Amino acid sequence: MSNVREVIRYYRQPGSRIGYRLFLHGTKHFGFYREKDSPWLWSAAMRRMEDKMGKTLAQPSGARVLDAGCGVGDVAGHLAGRFGLRVHGVDLLDTHVAQARRRTCRRGLDHLLTFSQSDYAALDFPDESFDAVYTMETLVHAAEAEAVLRQFHRVLKPGGRLVMFEYAREFPARMPASVAEVFRQLNDWAAMPSFQRFTYGTLERLTAETGFSVRRVEDISRSMWPMLRCFAVIGALPYAGFRAAGLHRHFVNTMSAVEFWRHRAFWRYEIHTAEK
Ligand SMILES: C[S@@+](CC[C@H](N)C(=O)[O-])C[C@H]1O[C@@H](n2cnc3c(N)ncnc32)[C@H](O)[C@@H]1O
Predict the structure, then answer these.
(1) Which residues, at least 6 apart from 197, have a Cβ–Cβ distance to it below 8 Å?
(2) Which numbered atom of ligand 1 lies nearest the CA of 26?
(3) Neighbours of 61 (CB within 10 A)
(4) Where are the alpha helices (DSSP H) in 108-245?
(5) Distance from C-alpha of 162 to C-alpha of 38, rounded to nearest angstrom
(6) By the 8 A CB rule, do 76 and 100 touch?
C-alpha cells in the first residue's frame, strides 16, 4: 500500500505550489505565537516553531538528526544554524530536495546539512545511525504510519529521541456529520490518510506499540491558530467563489484554511516526544 503518487500530485498542484511560495517562501509548516505576537509576521512565527522543535529535540551541537519529510529544508537549516545539529533531510519530491540543497548552499551550511530524495517508509540508512528523528507536519501523509514509525525506530540509536509535530482529530462520532464529511474530503484531496486516521490518542498508541517510550504529548493548537486565522481571512472570499464554481477541490489549501479554522474545535496540533 502506497500513496506516493497522490502526495506528489498534491504538492505539484499549482494551487499548492503557488500558495506555499507566495505566502511562506516555500516552507510548509505553521508558526508558533506567544500572546502579543502579530499574527501577520509569518516568518518570525515559523522560526519560533522551528526553535520549539530544536528545544524539544534537546540534542547537543553536532548530533546527527533525520528530518523526515524535510520540504525545502528550512527547518533543517534553522536547526543547523541555531543549534549546530547535523541534519539529513529526506523528501519524496525531487523539486523539494533540489530547493533544499540550493538554500543550504546560499546559507553556507553545506558542512552540516545533506538531503536525499526518499520515502520515509523505506529509509536506506543503517540501523542506529541517528541521535534523533523529527517530523514537521508530514506524518499525516503516511499511507501506513506503523511502517514509518518502524523505520524511525530502526534508524535511531538506543535512547535516541523522536519528535513529531503533527495533527490529531476528534472521533467522527463526536463531530457533526457535515464536519466529519469536510474532514474526510480534505484529507482525501490533500493526500493525508493518517490525519483521517489520527483520532485523539492514536499516534501515541502507535508510537508505543512500535517500541518507543512516549514521554509527552502537548497540545499547542492555540499557539498556531493566529497564522491559520490569517489564511482563513485571506481565503474566505476566493473559497466562496471556488465553491460556487465547483472548483474547490483544486484549491485544497484555501479550503483547508477556511474549514480547519471554522472547525478548530475538532482537531489539535500536537507535539509528540518519544524515546527509543
Ligand atoms: C507539509 S510539508 C512539510 C515540509 C517541511 N517539514 C516543513 O516544515 O516545511 C510535508 C512534506 O512531507 C513530504 N512527504 C510526504 N510524504 C512523504 C514520504 N512518504 N516520504 C518523504 N517525504 C514525504 C512532502 O513531500 C512535503 O514536503
Answers:
(1) 145
(2) 9
(3) 10
(4) 145-155, 177-189, 193-197, 202-209, 221-244
(5) 31
(6) yes
C-alpha cell at 162: 523522536
The overall longest dimension of the chain from CA atoms, in Å, is 54
What are the residue ranges spanned by the domains of the chain?
A: 4-275
Q: Which CATH number fits domain 4-275: 3.30.450.20, 3.30.1310.10, 3.40.50.150, 3.30.950.10?
A: 3.40.50.150
Q: What are the per-10-residue average pLDDT scores of the chain (276 residues)?
A: 89 82 87 96 97 98 98 97 98 96 94 97 98 98 98 98 98 95 94 96 98 98 97 92 86 92 98 98
Task: Report whether 25 contacts 78 (CB < 8 A).
Answer: no
**CA 96, CA 117: separation in Å to the nearest integer?**
9
Could you tell me if the CB of 7 is within 6 A of ligand 1?
A: yes
- Taking the C-alpha atoms of residue 164 and residue 210, their distance in angstroms, rounded to an integer, is 15
CB 86 within 8 A of CB 66: no
Question: Of all atoms in ligand 1, which is nearest to the CA of residue 93?
Answer: 25
Cα distances (angstroms) measured from residue 191 to each of 4, 140, 141, 224: 9, 8, 6, 22
Ligand 1, atom 27, residue with closest C-alpha: 71
Which DSSP letter does residue 263 get? T
**Looking at ligand 1, which residue's alpha carbon is closest to its atom 12?**
69
Category of 160 on φ-ψ map: left (φ > 0), alpha (ψ -120 to 50) or beta: beta
Q: Where are the alpha helices (DSSP H) in the chain?
A: 4-12, 14-24, 42-57, 74-83, 94-107, 145-155, 177-189, 193-197, 202-209, 221-244, 252-262
Instruction: Report the predicted TM-score, pTM, of the whole model to 2 decimal places.
Output: 0.96
